[in-house]
Amino acid sequence: MPDPLELRDEETAALSYVLEEAKRYLAELDESLVLPEREGTIDGDLPEEGDGAVTALAELVAGAGLATRSSGPRFFHFVTGGTTPAALGADWLTSVLDQNAFSWISSPLGFELHNTSIRWLLDLFELPEDWGGALTTGATMANFVGLACARRWWAEHHGVDLDERGFAGLPEAPIFSTDYIHASSRKALAMLGLGRDSPQLVDLNGLERGLAALNGAPAIVIANAGDVNTGDFDPIGRMADLAERHGAWLHVDGAFGLFARLAPRAAPLAEGIERADSVIADGHKWLNVPYDCGFAFVRDKELLNEPFKFTAAYLPGGESPSPEASRRARSLAVWATLRAYGRQGHRAMVERHLDLAQRLGKRVEEESELELLAPVKLNVVCFRHRPPNLEGNALDEHNLALGEDILKDSRVFFGTTRYEGKTAFRPAIVNWRTTERDIDLIADVVLELGARRVRSAHR
To answer: In degrees, to the nearest 5, what angle opens at C-alpha 173 toward C-alphas 170 and 174?
Structure first.
């Protein structure tokens, strides 16, 4: 088989084939099992000679049984959104244009849309317009960006340019958070050399005591907007008060909770975020743009430059700050969905998801064999199946096994978690396609499979 240059006419055929397969996939998406039975294979040896683009793509399509329908309306695992039509079209265009968006010289389009997207997102979330920002691969790297700026700020207060000199001569950085801290924040702290286990987990009173004991020495406080098990929030406004009083840096992990600021009834949960020093969120959650996308916002935009400085003789200067040198122009999908649906469209989507979460919470409370474990604060519903005569470890084991049944059944898709020592489910509602019918199916499936497991245990 000749090299790709001799087969350039394949481009149109390859795109046409993918378009038809995409149309078929999307037409079936609302009714598909989330994890269909495995079909085909993608295994094998590297071929000596290829068979061309269409043949290769056909093999990928044949192996698509391995793909979860995570872009569909019944995937409630991991707080995963879908992809709006505008974002999907823009993402295809992003691949066609294949821009490296790290600088104006490499891509004026990618560079300018990055800046516009950051400005529009700040406006969407009602954050100060003079903040800086960066688009990232997701919440983990967004936390990395925000906490890298916090780390630089902390070191500067000790008279050290950490990004040039490293940690030599610096004390351990005091870091505080609550039990709601997410694994992505811990991972970012590990990558920054601050330590995965460095945060002191405290309540509000403990935070006040811990900051006061530092006598004005710089510290980093991580507040959490949207606990993954319940959708609950830290008291961010009161944490901002303490951070300001004691001169600490306040970082807010709002991977999905930041979107509460779009809905008037949920906005009080997110009050005080505008007073933080850095804030992050995920785009591939509630914004419903394709993987991968996140964003980090920093009050002092100058702090973004040094941790991510990228200099070489061949570079023009003026690159946008980011952990990545080469980066996909993910701003196209962000810009497109914001341009297509505006503030009101995204607010309507968030409001609808809040209604759906309340609908599921109410259904759980009405069913005698379902138990709501936490108030429904946002878009996550924490509950379990509770048949008669099961308690303690036996009840936990029942729900753990039921969780495996639910994933295998695949009409709806969510796993188990641990909440206050109990095995629980925590479906999260963020996909633009999700409707009342999809939400009602959650309770129906849990009751059906739960009853089947109880009957099986009594045989």
So the answer is: 145
Tokens of 143: 């936390």
Alpha-carbon distance values, 272 to 44, 297, 402 (Å)? 54, 15, 39
Question: In a 3-state reduction of DSSP, which class is residue 207?
Answer: helix
- The pairing of strands 294-298 and 278-282 is antiparallel
Q: What's the pLDDT at 176?
A: 98
**What pLDDT shows up at residue 401?**
97
Six-digit token string for 133: 């920002």
- Fold classification of 87-339 is Aspartate Aminotransferase; domain 2 (3.40.640)
pLDDT at 41: 67
List beta partners, residue 233.
Answer: 225
Give the residues across from 307 on adjacent strands.
none
DSSP state of 75: B
pLDDT of residue 459: 67
Give how far the C-alpha of residue 99 lies from the chain's centroid of Cα atoms, to the nearest Å: 24
> How far apart (Å, rounded) are the C-alpha atoms in residues 298 and 278?
4
**The pair of three-digit structure tokens given for residue 27, joined into one six-digit string:** 């037409």
C-alpha to C-alpha distance for 125 and 122, rounded to whole angstroms: 5
> Which helix (H) or strand (E) segment is 109 a member of?
helix 108-124
Apex CA 211: angle with CA 165 and CA 297, to 5°?
A: 60
Domain ranges across the chain = 87-339
Torsion, Cα 188 193 196 199, to 10 degrees, reads: -100
According to the model, what pLDDT value does residue 319 have?
A: 81
Rg, Å, the chain Cα set = 24
Determine how many CB atoms are found less than 10 A away from the CB of residue 343: 13
CA 144 – CA 142 distance, rounded (Å):
5
From start to end of 185-299, where are the E strands?
200-201, 220-224, 249-253, 278-282, 294-298
| pLDDT in the model for residue 360 | 98
Tell me which residue of 242, 230, 236, 233 sits closest to 205, measured CA to CA: 242
Packing angle of the helix pair 436-457, 331-366 (nearest 10 deg) = 50
Mean pLDDT by 10 residues, the chain (459 residues): 75 95 95 82 85 92 87 96 97 96 93 97 98 97 98 97 95 97 98 98 98 97 97 98 98 98 98 98 97 97 92 82 92 98 98 98 98 98 96 97 97 97 98 98 98 85
